[in-house]
Amino acid sequence: MRVTLVKPGRLGRPAGFTLLEMLVVLVVLGFLMIGLSQGVRAGFSLWDAQTRRVGQTAELDAAARIVRALLTNVASPSSTGITTTANGAFKGTPDSVSFVCDLPTGLGTTQRAEITLQLEFAYWGAVSPDQTGGWQAQWEAGAIPELIRLRLFFTKGDQRRFPDLITSPRL
Questions:
Q1: Per residue of the chain (171 residues), what is the pLDDT tens digit?
Q2: Does residue 77 lie in a domain region?
Q3: What is the value of pTM for the model shown?
Q4: 58: domain range?
């Protein structure tokens, strides 16, 4: 006579998963899907915020490049054919600067013009040979200053910040 042992709990049940096991798996998969969708949503919102921030600063970068190019290419008083100020081709005050330089036309040629910018400026250099150099609020010496600093302040509530632009004219 042959005796077969039957494991308890398996008597007459087909192989497979119970309803409770399937519900647990579906709940875990649901939590995973919620977590993944929230992560993707957060990634897209961060991407959008960064794109807006880059767009805002791109305008400032373009303005800084143009102003730097103009101030770097200030023409010396002897090479200008234009007389703009009593002391030469360059005059600077705390809130404006007037000078003669070559404007880039974008076509490979330049055009000389008198330019006046209304911003906050400071000028580095010695006004006279017997003085030491330093930042000056106003510049009326016959020579071109060694450095020019430009500061731009926005209205209250505007989150943008324009960094100080310091350039050295080609002497």
A1: 676 665 555 556 667 889 999 999 999 999 999 999 999 999 999 999 998 888 777 777 777 787 777 777 777 655 545 444 445 567 777 767 777 777 766 666 666 767 666 577 888 888 777 888 888 888 887 778 889 888 776 666 666 667 788 888 875
A2: yes
A3: 0.43
A4: 50-167
DSSP H helical segments within the chain, as ranges?
19-72
Q: Is 41 within the bounds of a domain?
A: no
CA distances (Å), 97 to each of 17, 62, 118, 127, in order? Answer: 83, 20, 7, 16
- Determine, yes or no, domain membership for 30: no
- What is the tally of structural domains in the chain? 1
Give domain status of residue 3, yes or no: no
AA letter at 132: T
Measure CA of the first residue to CA of the last residue in the chain; give whole Å.
Answer: 115
Q: What angle do CA 131, 137, 142 make, to 5 degrees?
A: 55
